[in-house]
Design a protein that fits this description.
Rossmann fold; 7 strands; binds flavin mononucleotide
């Protein structure tokens, strides 16, 4: 782990209270798979223990983070994961982001601050969804996943 070497593959780590952000995660995973990416690991941050999520993030070169907006913040368990990644000073990884909100999105904006601090290389356009999955969101999730073809 201390060498920061990475295998081909992408970890999608997301939080979701009602399933909206989870639907985005699933749409992204489906398109990554359609792009031929073999190792796709999904972690719902409220279900997987952080130690397993961190181990997979160290293992694979790609990380796609998803979070609903929660009181104008990142969902707490996602925030906690991001701070664990920063503490470990992981280097040389690629990053994608997505999130959802209802009245004023904040999660994606705040995850962009993580992107800057971590110095991970941003891949694709972050996707921000208002309320529920629509055709346009599905397309944006597909576009985000397509950007990983060249990583
Ligand atoms: C406790 C709580 C706090 C929330 N805070 C915000 C907020 O500050 N801004 C906002 O636009 N939406 C807020 N929402 C709405 C969620 O971000 C939105 O419903 C989101 O799509 C939920 O995603 P999920 O289905 O993946 O849980 C909040 C929802 C809950 C339950």
């Amino acid at each position: 782990m201390s060498r920061y070497d990475a295998d081909e593959g992408v970890v999608i780590a997301y939080g979701s209270m009602y399933g909206n952000t989870e639907q985005m995660a699933e749409a992204i995973a489906a398109e990554l798979s359609a792009q031929g990416i073999k190792n796709i690991v999904m972690h719902n941050v409220t279900k997987s223990h952080p130690s397993y999520i961190i181990a997979d993030i160290f293992r694979y070169k790609g990380l796609i983070i998803g979070s609903p907006t929660y009181s104008n913040q990142i969902f707490p368990e996602v925030e906690s994961l991001l701070s664990k990644i920063l503490v470990r000073e992981l280097k040389g990884r690629y990053l994608g982001m997505f999130g959802s909100y209802t009245w004023a999105g904040a999660a994606v904006k705040r995850m962009a601050e993580f992107a800057e601090k971590s110095k991970f290389e941003l891949v694709g356009n972050p996707v921000e969804m208002k309320q529920a999955m629509q055709d346009i969101t599905y397309t944006q999730c597909e576009n985000l996943a397509c950007a990983w073809r060249t990583v």
